[in-house]
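Q: My labmate handed me this sequence with no annotations at all. I'd like to see what the chain might look like in three dimensions before we decide whether it's worth expressing. Could you predict it?
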Amino acid sequence: MATRTFDDKYPGQPFVQTDNSLESRKELSDKFLGVYNDTGSQRFWQISVIFGVLFGIGLLGYFWKIFATKDPGDFGYYAALFSFLMTTSAGAPMVAIGPRIANAHWRRSISRVAEIWTLIGTVNLIVFLPLLWVMPSLDNGRRSLVFYWEAKGDWWFPFLIKFSGHIWTTVSIITLIVLGIVLLWVSVMPDLALIRDNAPDGWRKKWASRLSRGWIGSSWQWNWQRHRMGTLGALYFMMLVLTHFFISTEFLMVHVPGWIDSLYPITHAHNALQGGVATVMLTMFVVSRIGPYRHYISLDQFHGLGKLLLALSLLWFWFWFCSFMIFWYGKKPSEQAILKLFVHGPYFPVFLAEFFFVFFIPWWTMVWNPVRRSVWGPAIIAISVLIGTFLDRVRMYVSTWDVAGISADKLAANGGQFSDEYPRNMMLNMTILDDPAFDRIMIIKNFEGLPVPTSAVLPTAIDGVIILGFVSGAVFLYMMASRLIPVINIWEQKELLLYNAEVQFHRAKVKVMGKPR
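A: Here is what I predict for the chain of 517 residues:
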C-alpha cells in the first residue's frame, strides 16, 4: 500500500522560507537606523535634564557624606544604596547572557537593553570607594573570611595582609565592570560598523568609526564575536557570583557577631538575578511604550521574562526559608538575636513589606496567565520586586551597620568595658585597645551576645538626597548611552531572518524557528 506524502496531499504548497534577501536586510537596517538617527524628542531631553540635575544634587550629598560623617554606623543607608545598585544594574546583563546561551529567540529584541546596564558599573564604583575608607583593616580584630596574621617584611606585604578584604572586593568589582563593558563592546561592534557606513556625519559616526575597529562582517569576525561573547558571558556570571560573595561577607555578615550562614552569599547573588530581571523588565516597558520601539518589543518578550521573574521570586522564598530555619531551629542566644535583628525586631515592618513586594505579590499575580501574558502586568510586578529588593537591602545593611557602629566616644565613656549597652564594635578603628588599661582577651571572651537595637534607624535628609541622586544618575547614564549605542540589537534582528521560516501544515501556514548552532 502506497503512503501519501506531504507533496501528494498538498501539491503546489512547498516549504516557504521567510525572505532573507539583501533588500529585506537593507530595509530592516534602514528602519532601525531611522530611529537611531533621530536625536530624541523634546520629552526625552527634558527627562534627561531632570535626572541629570538630580544626579548633580546627589553628588553634592555624596561629598557631604564623605567629609562630614565621622561615625561609620551612619553609612548604613549608603551601604544599602551601593548594594541595591549592584543588585539591579550588575544583574541586568544576565538577561542577555542566560537566554543567549539557551538559544532563546525572544531575547533578541531586549538583549541590548540588558547589556547597556553594564555601563552603570562606573556609578557603582563611585559609590563603592568611600566604603573602603569606612571599613577598618583586619589588624583591628574584626572578623573576616580572609586569613590574617601579623606579617613582617617590606611595607607592601603587611599592607596586603591588613587590607586583603578591601583588595579582593575591589578587584572583583573592577573585574566585573571591565568584563561587562567589554561584553557590551563586542556585542555592539557590528552595529557600530553599520552606523559608521550609513549614519550622517557627526559625533556619533566619529565614535562609531573608532569603536567598530575595522569590522567588515567577515566569517572570521562573526566566529570571533560568537566565541568571545560566550566566553565573556560565562566569565561575567562567575564574577557576578564572586563579587556578591565578597560584598555580602566583608561588608555585611562579618560585622554581626553570631551570624553564620553559608547560604547567604549565594542568596545575595540570587537577589541580583531577580533584581536584574525586574530592572530589564521595567526598562523594556519604558523603551517599548514610551520610546520608539513599540513594534520591536512585543508580548513575547514580556511573557518570556515574566516566567523568569516568577521562577526567581519563588526561589527567593526558598533561599530565605532555608536560612530562616537554621536560626529558628538552633535556638542559640546568638541565633535568636539574629532573628530579632533581621525579622521580628525593630525592622519587622520593613521585612513584612519586603516579603509582600518581592515574593507574595509576584507569586500571587504571575501565576495567572492573563497577568503574565500581558504588557502592563509584568511591568507593575517588576516595580514591586524593585521596591522589595531595596527594602531588603535597607533591612540587612542598615541594621548591620547600626549594630557595628558604636562610637569610640561611647566606648571610652564606659571605661573601655564592652557591656550589653556598649558591645564590641566591629566597625571601630580599635587603636584604643592598644592601651594597657584594656584587656583585649577579656573583651573578646566576654562578648557572647548580639546587641539588638530597640528602634530602626531612619534615613537622614543627606541619605535621601544620595539615594535619589545616584539612582537618577544610573538612569541618566543609561539614557545618554542610548544616544550612541542602539537600544535594539540590529545585527541579531537581521540574524533572526536566517532562522525564520513558514511551513504549510494542513490548511494553515505555521511559523518555524530554527535553533542557532
